[in-house]
Design brief:
Elements lengths: L1 E5 L8 E4 L2 E10 L9 E8 L5 E7 L3 E5 L2 E11 L2 E6 L5 E5 L13 E7 L2 E4 L3
Antiparallel strand pairs: 1-6, 2-3, 3-4, 4-5, 7-8, 7-10, 8-9, 10-11
Amino acid sequence: MKIQVEVKELKEGKYVIVDDEACVIKSISKSKPGKHGSAKARIDVIGLFDNQKRSIVGPVSDKIYVPVVERKNAQVLSIAGDIAQLMDMGDFSTFEMKVPDEYKDRVVEGEEVSYLTAMGKMKFDLR
């Protein structure tokens, strides 16, 4: 799911869609309007799921899509290799996610973990 907002309403730390990928805004710089043009904004972002750096430049009056990012909790049912079977604590649906190497020691059977979901993709959000 996604909603549409104007570029001038965006803030650092919020989310935006660039190249059909949900991204976190790292910096925004805005220029003043010129004699014949409108104010421009340069937005530097990092992909939420692929960690790629991207940037976009455009007028602050343009509209841009913002993904609906949800933070949810799930219980770890089982772990087989690097795949964890999880049960969502809200609707009790079960699904599988790949456990990244940096989270292998923190994802334990029977424990509760948090994860992010946006645009049909999911990732662990262990802080």
